[in-house]
Amino acid sequence: MTERIYKTLETEEIKFLRLQFVDVNGVVKSLAVPSKSLETALTDGIGFDGSSIEGFSRISESDMSLKPDPDTFSVFNFNGRKEGRFICDVYYDDKPFEGDPRFVLKKNIEEMKRILGENTVFNVGAELEFFLLNNDMKQQDNGSYFDFAPVDLAHDIRKTSALHMINLGIDYEASHHEVGKGQHEIDFKFSDALKTADSVVTSKIIIKIVASLNNLTATFMPKPFQNDYGNGMHLHLNLSSGKKNTFEGEKDFELSQTALSFIAGILKHSKAICAVSNPTVNSYKRLIPGYEAPAYISWGRGNRSSLIRIPKSKNKRIEFRVPDASCNPYLTFSVLLRAGLDGVINELQAPPPINYNLYDLGIEKIKEKGIELLPSTLKDALKELKKDPVVKSALLKAYDAFMRAKWKEWDEYRLYVTQWEFEKYLNI
Fold first, then answer.
1. Which of 76, 222, 368, 419 is the most exposed place for a label (fewest CB within 10 A)?
2. DSSP code at position 28
């Protein structure tokens, strides 16, 4: 692997390396070093001030280092400027830093293998939604679901983004115009959770760069417009062992008991999961009935009003529909895996599936049926996370940093006076 990397750097005359990682909020951080520093980076790491990164370390413990993961090497090539790119693992005192979100996911995968067997793989496929905005911050076009040119003005942008993804080794699957005006979606093929998380982080960078080169702004904000659809990141999940999909039942389109227990675990912990999968104040303006984002804790076959949908496919999987692209994918995949494992370990039983449109019932009938609601604010979700030991444990040492960052965000929101409030209450 390293020989191939050195050869690529030499033959393509790459002078700089881009070392990337994410903070606890999932924000990409980056450090550029000369290519000649690769050997040092791989063996000793490249030092940085961890106290300046959200959720990492105190000033008294700030000397941290980045070690590139050779498996993530790729060549960024925008406008003819080539850079070698690595996603890095964070180290402290020559040991993996336990608050690094990527480390958190790795440890949860290790725990899964310990429980279910070394050959077990947690597979994730992601559907990444985003808006493209003009310089005036308005939607780029008036297109809708699956529209084509000339109504869809972003076909070339999606295609260029996809080509960059393919060149970087990302398992790109499809792209299309989404339901909202100026809204788009790019999907990834099923892959192991760590690779998919890396792909999500990288693809967001690519989409933003390509949009910028076309004088546009790409936003993954969950609900940027009051009267339009929000940006989700639906996740397709299953477990496999060798060539066997352990979610497959004995008959076509049936789920195995493992899958049903995995669903039960996610439903049980979904309120706490929300704090991680939907981690911003704005996230909860998307989770309202009527805009294809789930608001109720339920599951169903082919039912897009449910929190968990079972697509009609022989490649048996579950679709978790609540997350948005503001989440940290490493932490989100971690809590989903741990919640699902709780269901499998304890043989939890999923409730009966719901195969009717929940949005047609109204809140009162929903409550009469005993169906619970997801948290309606970030504050409520953080309270659920605090009291859920399974989801808390999945975050390892990132838990405290995550909670500090999110409570700080909630407090900032509480203190901010909006224009709507000012206009509504000025004459009281």
1. 419
2. E
DSSP element (H, E) containing 352: none
Q: Where are the domains of the chain?
A: 2-93, 106-419
Domain boundaries 2-93, CATH class: alpha beta
CA 388, CA 339: separation in Å to the nearest integer? 10
Terminal CA-to-CA distance of the chain, rounded, Å?
69
pLDDT tens, 366-394? 888 888 899 999 999 999 999 999 999 99
pLDDT in tens, 330-352: 999 999 999 999 999 999 999 98
Instruction: Pull the structure tokens for residue 50.
Output: 């961890």
Residue 15 has pLDDT above 60, yes or no: yes
Torsion of CA 332, 338, 339, 345, to 10 degrees: 160
Strand stretches in 97-216, DSSP E = 120-133, 172-177, 183-188, 191-192
Instruction: Quote the crossing angle between the two packed helices 101-116 and 193-213, to the nearest 10°.
Output: 150
Q: What letter represents residue 29's amino acid?
A: K
DSSP 296: B
- What's the CATH architecture for 106-419? 2-Layer Sandwich (3.30)
